[in-house]
Model the fold of this input.
Amino acid sequence: MIDFEDVIKDSAENLAPHKLTFYLQNLAKEFHSYYKSTKILNNDKLMTRLILITTIKSVLSNGLSLLGVSSPEEM
Done:
Protein backbone atom coordinates (compact mmCIF):
# COMPACT_ATOMS: atom_id res chain seq x y z
CA MET A 1 0.00 0.00 0.00
CA ILE A 2 3.01 2.23 0.34
CA ASP A 3 3.22 2.58 -3.44
CA PHE A 4 -0.45 3.59 -3.90
CA GLU A 5 0.43 7.23 -4.61
CA ASP A 6 3.12 6.18 -7.09
CA VAL A 7 0.65 3.95 -8.93
CA ILE A 8 -1.85 6.82 -9.15
CA LYS A 9 0.81 9.20 -10.44
CA ASP A 10 2.10 6.68 -12.99
CA SER A 11 -1.43 5.87 -14.17
CA ALA A 12 -2.24 9.55 -14.63
CA GLU A 13 1.03 10.57 -16.29
CA ASN A 14 0.89 7.68 -18.77
CA LEU A 15 -2.88 7.80 -19.30
CA ALA A 16 -2.93 4.17 -18.19
CA PRO A 17 -5.84 3.56 -15.80
CA HIS A 18 -5.30 -0.18 -16.17
CA LYS A 19 -2.22 0.13 -13.94
CA LEU A 20 -4.41 1.34 -11.08
CA THR A 21 -6.96 -1.36 -11.86
CA PHE A 22 -4.29 -4.08 -11.69
CA TYR A 23 -2.94 -2.63 -8.45
CA LEU A 24 -6.38 -2.60 -6.81
CA GLN A 25 -7.16 -6.09 -8.05
CA ASN A 26 -3.90 -7.42 -6.61
CA LEU A 27 -4.50 -5.64 -3.29
CA ALA A 28 -7.99 -7.15 -3.04
CA LYS A 29 -6.60 -10.59 -3.85
CA GLU A 30 -3.87 -10.29 -1.22
CA PHE A 31 -6.37 -9.06 1.36
CA HIS A 32 -8.70 -11.96 0.61
CA SER A 33 -5.86 -14.42 1.25
CA TYR A 34 -4.93 -12.62 4.47
CA TYR A 35 -8.52 -12.46 5.72
CA LYS A 36 -9.13 -16.11 4.91
CA SER A 37 -6.07 -17.30 6.83
CA THR A 38 -6.02 -14.88 9.79
CA LYS A 39 -8.30 -14.65 12.80
CA ILE A 40 -9.08 -10.96 13.13
CA LEU A 41 -11.25 -10.92 16.25
CA ASN A 42 -10.39 -12.42 19.63
CA ASN A 43 -6.71 -11.82 19.15
CA ASP A 44 -4.04 -9.88 21.01
CA LYS A 45 -3.27 -8.00 17.77
CA LEU A 46 -6.87 -6.91 17.24
CA MET A 47 -6.28 -3.15 17.01
CA THR A 48 -3.32 -3.54 14.65
CA ARG A 49 -5.34 -5.78 12.37
CA LEU A 50 -8.35 -3.47 12.43
CA ILE A 51 -6.13 -0.53 11.45
CA LEU A 52 -4.72 -2.60 8.58
CA ILE A 53 -8.20 -3.54 7.38
CA THR A 54 -9.42 0.05 7.61
CA THR A 55 -6.42 1.24 5.61
CA ILE A 56 -6.97 -1.38 2.91
CA LYS A 57 -10.65 -0.42 2.70
CA SER A 58 -9.69 3.22 2.28
CA VAL A 59 -7.13 2.49 -0.45
CA LEU A 60 -9.59 0.31 -2.37
CA SER A 61 -12.40 2.83 -2.00
CA ASN A 62 -10.25 5.78 -3.07
CA GLY A 63 -8.78 3.87 -6.00
CA LEU A 64 -12.19 2.80 -7.25
CA SER A 65 -13.46 6.34 -6.86
CA LEU A 66 -10.61 7.63 -9.03
CA LEU A 67 -11.70 5.14 -11.68
CA GLY A 68 -15.32 6.28 -11.40
CA VAL A 69 -16.47 3.03 -9.83
CA SER A 70 -18.55 2.88 -6.66
CA SER A 71 -17.63 0.40 -3.97
CA PRO A 72 -20.07 -1.63 -1.89
CA GLU A 73 -20.18 -1.05 1.86
CA GLU A 74 -20.50 -4.77 2.52
CA MET A 75 -20.66 -8.05 0.66
